Amino acid sequence: MKIVVIGGTGLIGSKLANKLRDHKQEAVAAAPNTGVNTLTGEGLAEALKDASVVVDVSNSPSWEDAAVLKFFETSTRNLLSYEGAAGVGHHVALSVVGTDRLSESGYFRAKIAQEKLIKESSIPYSIVHATQFFEFLKGLADISMVGDKVHLPPVLFQPMAADDVASGVARIAVGTPVNGIIEIAGPEQFRVDELVRRRLASLQDSREIVADPNALYSGAKLSERTLVPEKDARLGETSFETWLTQPGAQIPSAPQPAGVAVVNREKESHQKAS
Ligand SMILES: NC(=O)c1ccc[n+]([C@@H]2O[C@H](COP(=O)([O-])OP(=O)(O)OC[C@H]3O[C@@H](n4cnc5c(N)ncnc54)[C@H](OP(=O)(O)O)[C@@H]3O)[C@@H](O)[C@H]2O)c1
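That is the input. Now the predicted structure with NAP docked in place:
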């Protein structure tokens, strides 16, 4: 099968394209620097010619509220329309566990809009909800700074290795469309503040972590289980300690795009005042 990976040069996309080739599929990595731009439509018709499946693991270069919404709405509309014309039989998209519970966040409103377009289209689909990637833990610290300290909510999550995300998405891409959501997650639960503290320690990063119940995640207030998947989530194999021993863990992740409001100072000062 010809499977087009939109965002095929990114963290998940590059791993996914390799795993699909391991499954003996013809995987085409599509991204602006391979001449395919889902925002403008450039290169899409050619890339999708004779494709059976399209997997969208792209991400917006900016996470500012309006920009990220425009990215996911425009690129998803374009993709679905070109897929219809090319006769693609399965649209797979990567999203995040708990997306529907995170509408206070501009980033997650954009993911909700992406999912809505997919559900409303006539193309058979599978939406994969993954938990946070281990590779994202340092980035999570970077976007959670208040002064020189990292403020994080002490709530549960079940993060996973990007390798396991790619394996999970690859399996779904070669399967039958579920026309619904499949959750994938890591094998263990942690508290967000505790695991980011361990990740920074592994990088000899001395920033102090503050467990702050008012800290927001990408602009949204979290409760204890907002980020936790359902019991039937498909679990990856890689534990956090095993991942730490792998070469990928020695590389701190790239800085996250600007425009992510993290700690709710307004609510905090309001609470102090009241
Ligand atoms: N971070 C997490 O913990 C987490 C958890 C669950 C799900 N997710 C989801 O996982 C997905 C992938 O994340 P990632 O970290 O692998 O992303 P990433 O490394 O930032 O890669 C993004 C990819 O999108 C491509 N792209 C950007 N603009 C494009 C455009 N106009 N047309 C086509 N491609 C474009 C990029 O190409 P260039 O490099 O050429 O710009 C790149 O290949 C996202 O949708 C995210 O919501 C993330």
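Confidence is low (pLDDT under 50) at residues 258-274.
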